[in-house]
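Review session, final week

We close the course with one last complete record, chosen because it touches almost every idea we covered. It is Sphingolipid delta(4)-desaturase, a protein from Morchella conica CCBAS932 with 374 residues. Go through it on your own first, then we will talk.
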Amino acid sequence: MALVVETTTIGPNDASKDSLNDWIWTYQEEPHRTRRHQIIKAHPEVTKLCGPEPLTKYVVLGVTSLQIGCAYLLRSTPIFSWPFFLTAYIVGATANQNTFLAIHEISHNLAFRSAYANRLFAIFANLPIGLPYSAAFRPYHLTHHKALGVDGLDTDLPTKFEAIFLDSVLGKAFFCTFQILFYALRPMMVLTLPFTGLHFLNLVVQLGFDAILVWSCGWNSFAYLIMSSFLAGSLHPCAGHFIAEHYVFEKPVNPSPKNAVSGEAVPVETYSYYGCLNFFTYNVGLHNEHHDFPAIPWTRLPKLREIASEFYEPLPTHTSWSWVIWQFIWDSDVSLWSRVKREQQLKSGKMVEADWTKEELEGEADTTGDKKKA
């Protein structure tokens, strides 16, 4: 069964083609919390799927070893050569995209039962990326879950500056090529979070690892890790998930002013993908399932979909992440404007906030909450 929520969309009053150049606004809560309660009511057994996945730590260890091994083998290979680039694109980018999503899993406390063990393991998983990332990613990502689509809180949303200046085929191609940089820099410009001891530890461990790598293998090995990270978030098939997850690919209908009242249903704002690339990406393609139950690990998301199939089968899906990138660039009806947004104050009068405690920021508290609530 599909969830339908009341919404309003925005655009200039003349309803011309330019009216599509604005966000899709809704004044209702994000749909995942509602669907989670509906699924638990219909299938209470899904709560047994929550909890850490022991396999995650072994996959992380294997991928980290692979990347360090490749960095070592390429220590004498010229950076501007086909063997170096193809290894970085085919092996390195796929491996580092896997690492990004391992950190995503770990941020939900799904590798170990101890929150602190998850924080330390995320710092270890960070090593092949080349730059400190895990400590900063976690609070921003969990805010994305707490405040999906909320203007000023969800840093997964493009800024108005991005949407205006990249609103063309070339602009969208630029965004897709350098989207890893947008995702790295945008959060600091939208929502400022305090620098904690965990951030400092992440920084020190990463810089120490990089220094040892350069000292023992040379700069080419370090360049391999950096190039792998860049390509992982560029024009790479696995990078399609960044766009596929929350950009609206349904064609907008009858846009209306932001403050108007509309009875139309908001387009689905989260899309799932069930293709083979999930094998390399911790099943992140099952994205509706993940947002509905962030405390269910990657290995059990297919089981969730199987149990609650009547909730997921009616939802629109993507069949190819590569096609998502191509369509995003070339389809004039899809752009950085194609995101559902909500203000912090909902129609009910409730304020959406990302209330972080010191314990949550330091990683000492379980912030998924789903298992306890379930």
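Two points worth writing down before the exam:
Confidence is low (pLDDT under 50) at residues 1-19, 259-263, 358-365, 367-374.
DSSP finds 17 helices and four strands in the chain.
Good luck, everyone.
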